Amino acid sequence: MTDRNDERKALESPGRRRFLGATAAVGMLGAAGGGAALMKSGEATAARNSGGAQSTHVPLGELDEYYGFWSGGHSGEVRVYGVPSMREIMRIPVFNHCSASGWGMTDESKRIMGDSWRFTNGDAHHPHVSYTEGSHDGRYLFINDKANTRVARIRLDVFKTDKMVTVPNVQAVHGLRLQKAPRTGYVFANGEYLIPQPNDGRGLDDTENYRTLYSAIDADSMEVKWQVLVDGNLDNTDADYTGKYTASTCYNSENAVTLAGKMQAERDHVVVFNIANIEKAVRDGNFTTIGDSDVPVVDGRKTSELNVTRYIPVPKNPHGLNTSTDGKYFIANGKLSPTVTMIDIAKLDDLFAGQLQNERDVVVGEPELGLGPLHTTFDGRGFAYTTLFLDSQVVKWNMENAVRHYNGENVDYIVQKIDVHYQPGHNHASLAESKDADGKWLFSLNKFSKDRFLPVGPLHAECDQMIDISGDEMVLVHDTPTFAEPHDAVIVRRDQITTKQIWDRDDPYFAETIEMARRDGVNVETDNTVIRDGNKVRVYMTSVAPSFGLSEFRVKKGDQVTVVVTNLDRIEDLTHGFCVTDHGVSMEISPLQTSSITFTADKAGVYWYYCNWFCHALHMEMAGRMIVEA
Ligand code: K7E
Ligand code: CUA
Ligand code: CA
């Protein structure tokens, strides 16, 4: 490895090396503080470069080639960019609440969010677009909520969240990936933190017996189908391209509850899950349940005899887990180790059949790439790209050469290292979570941005950098500041997604609201009327630019008011809003959409409601009075 280290040093600037003198573990712990030393403004200028073969410029009036879906981290949302222009096109509220669209306020969104609507925060890390036979089919995007242990689905015909599930028996869903073939039947979710099972107040201090589980969610119904009890925790996960196997990294094989404890073992592990064997165990009744949940839980601990998991030792505290787009390897990113571990997926059948001596026999490469490898992406041409958090670099490397090197051949596998600014987490190349990886654009999602943008006080933006990977050399071409905090992104071709221009009147998104109207004897498309039901009042009105179907309605103080607005404008882009002043009531009503919102009229007086989506020359006049009688 010495020659490799020398080669790496030659590629890195002296300033970086000085910062990185310590061991990986110490460096990682000091990353936030040490980062300041790394980010000298002079260095940032020197490292800036441009002039890739491809242009990020999309001429005025032309459309981007790709959709990029960025997770919003602890903003709880998903953001949609056009790639390569990096124009932010849309934000999709998911786990957060949205002042503009009324997500979290409307009756439709509350139904979808279920009990968890009372949480106004989320921590969205891993967005993934559904598959058919390893290619993106553009039906759905799925995303996890680490903060409140949820998984959500977004419809990509309307770009709206349409299902949300709180996963039982686990705390903090972190790693999330989809079954890639034959289609996305399952969404796989890692429970990250170790907790007593069940977590009902018993066994609080029995930390040795804290456990977590791997969950499979039915992508169509969004119900949790089964869970697998594991040893250690679960960080990131990915699925293969056949539908047989998935794998997850574990940084806490120690079952520790302290930072020091989680770094004790020299090796942690990757758990490989055998999907067919898990399904068989469920079918055969070889499962238990935990607490109040009726989800089948299959024992996948090391002591289990169900043949559903294997634990492959890897260097300590790995992080990202990425399947190469040729379907050959699960790649576990070392984090505290300068290596990534390549697991040969083709050898997993033999491993589960008991035909290998040792779990490590499925490891076919362990290239040393640099300090702090976190995530890896692919170009479809045999090269992998790994972020080096501590080195603040992306390294391009040759996968087959890494395997040959592991076999003792004297070949180089590192192709190039490029500086990024600074401290990258995920990276993601165009189409690189599908077998269609096209090796055009690479994004490095960097955690620090000091010196790159106008200062805005102590809190800085994150910095997403765009790298042209279409040629032999990586070329940095663009910086995009992003707000807290894209962990991951997915980029699909624009032809892989088909959207509706206006809503269908029979869309399930608001079917329950239409059903409520039917029970009230109301046709929401023609009737403007008020229905009283005890102290519940339902106000039905239409909207046609520039007026609401009702210019006033009357309720009594203390009434619970539900306002249902149906937008009869069938013109693309003609969205109305409905906002009641001084009541915290706001929602979007896009063309042919029905939206509803429920609130208490708790103050007597006159309150204007108005359209808050600029729709017409007389948009300001599109208003009416809610008259609340004492
Ligand atoms: Cu590395 Cu949540 Cu995918 Cu952040 S995780 S970086
Ligand atoms: Cu309707 Cu503005
Ligand atoms: Ca560990």
From TrEMBL:
It is found in: Periplasm. Its cofactor is Cu cation; Ca(2+). Cu cation Z1 binds at H319, H375. SUPFAM superfamilies: Cupredoxins (SSF49503), Nitrous oxide reductase, N-terminal domain (SSF50974). Binds 6 Cu cations per subunit. Each subunit contains 2 copper centers; Cu(A) (binuclear) and Cu(Z) (tetranuclear). Cu(Z) is thought to be the site of nitrous oxide reduction. Binds 2 calcium ions per subunit. Cu cation A1 binds at H576, C611, C615, M622. CDD domains: N2OR_C. Pathway: Nitrogen metabolism; nitrate reduction (denitrification); dinitrogen from nitrate: step 4/4. GO terms for biological process: denitrification pathway. Predicted to be exported by the Tat system. The position of the signal peptide cleavage has not been experimentally proven. Pfam families: Cupredoxin_1, nos_propeller, nos_propeller_2. Residues 535-630 are annotated as: COX2-like. GO terms for cellular component: membrane; periplasmic space. The keyword Oxidoreductase applies. Cu cation Z3 binds at H126, H426. The chain crosses the membrane at residues 20-39. It catalyses: N2 + 2 Fe(III)-[cytochrome c] + H2O = nitrous oxide + 2 Fe(II)-[cytochrome c] + 2 H(+). Cu cation Z4 binds at H487. Residues 532-630 form the Cytochrome oxidase subunit II copper A binding domain. PROSITE patterns: COX2_CUA, TAT. Keywords: Calcium, Copper, Membrane, Metal-binding, Oxidoreductase, Periplasm, Signal, Transmembrane, Transmembrane helix. Its EC number is 1.7.2.4. Cu cation A2 binds at C611, W613, C615, H619. In the C-terminal section; belongs to the cytochrome c oxidase subunit 2 family. Belongs to the NosZ family. HAMAP family: NosZ. This is Nitrous-oxide reductase. It comes from Thioalkalivibrio denitrificans.
